[in-house]
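Weekly puzzle thread! Below is a chain. First person to post its structure in token form gets bragging rights.
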Amino acid sequence: MKASSEKKDPNSYKNILKGTSLFGGVQIFQILINLLRGKFVAMFLGPEGMGIASMLNSSTNTVIRFASLGLNLSFVKEIAAAKNNGERLAAVSAVAGTLIRFTGILGALACALASPLLSEASFGTRDYAWQYVLLAIAVYLTVAGNGKLALLQGLHKARILSLTSLVGAATGLIAGVPLYYFFADKGIVPAMILLALTTYLSYSIGLRKSLPSSGLKSAGRVFKLLSKRMLAAGAILLASSLINTLCTYLINIFVRIYGDISDVGLFNAANSITLQYAGVVFTAMSLDYFPRLSAASGDRKAMRGIVDRQMEIVALISSPLSLLLIVTAPVIITLLLTSQFLPVTGLMRWLGLSILLKALAYPLGYIAFAKNNPRLFFWLEAIACNVLYLGCSLLFYYYFGLMGLGYGAVVEQGACIILYIAVNLKVYGYFPSRRAWLAILTGLIFTASGFAASLIFDSTAGLVVSSVIFVISAAISFRSLRKRLKE
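Winning reply:
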């Protein structure tokens, strides 16, 4: 009887791993395509062209985050809750569709109207203003496409979600590469628009097949109630997301001013690879862990168990992943970029170390939001951690150059973990269990050891020693995960 109930427990180790696989698999497709795109951009545009592309992407991403109003995670929650109720699903999807169109238009107008300012802030000149006007098209398509993606995620249509993500991104890549080859940096904007268009069309087709036709009709008088609830939930997430994107944008500007556009390209190349590499775990937590945590927010004991188990799983998965990135950094750079980018090997290794710390901070950061304490969540996530992110990045880059951005990432993530633990202990009485701490400390020790080996020894010896540490870490993690699956 007990075994049967555990199998049905949505917070069991087995279901946590299942959720990680389900939502993480979607990200793997996107990561592979994005890495291939980065390789072609590096080949055809070089560091300077990649710097221009990075500035255009980071600035338009700021507009996109703002225009989305933080609604995408809210869409996921509302659709997931309504998917077994046809009438409610029709209302929610109709309201979401209206909000998606509104936010898309808002983003396009903001990008076009602010084009001179965006160009001046990004490049120190207004020569790129016309490119931002054209990018208004990409902004609309991206905002609307991300909204449709959120609806698919809420419906848990894993097969359709995977297929549409792969088809849209792959088509965008195939269409965009010739533009880079023939037009160099002048092909960046058309390639961005093509990518946005193909992903938008792919998600639209997938959503049309997944939602019943009644779900696309007017929601009538319930529109005001549902839209107000979605907007309220999205506002807090918008603040955190927007400030984080803005901080990244300001870091790029600072690096351009105190370094050069090539430094911007090198930093973003390393940062992009590491973030996408870890995206599988982070996405799974946002789409699987957060709803489970919210459902148990009124039960302190159950909530403690959910966070502890998530921390254990994250530590066991993220430690080998971080080590693998540290060990293979030169190979990854050569394969995914070009030999011109090998100077960022050390930076990528520091960022690889920060991945584990960031993964450990993630479950702790969601507690305040799940406990319906938006003010605390805002001050922790949107203000404190972003101030640390910006401050550490600027300070360490100013004194240590590109490598300083890696130092800053490790210091910032470590400080955030300490802050989260202290606040959650004081406010909610939560402190990781002994078993969670064992998994965390084991992961930290192995990752730090492999990282140290890559720094202390010469290239060949460092590779051998850190590879051995990776194999041992992976074996221990695999054994620990198998043991937990049987519980």
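Puzzle host: Confirmed. Bonus trivia for everyone else. Confidence is low (pLDDT under 50) at residues 1-7.
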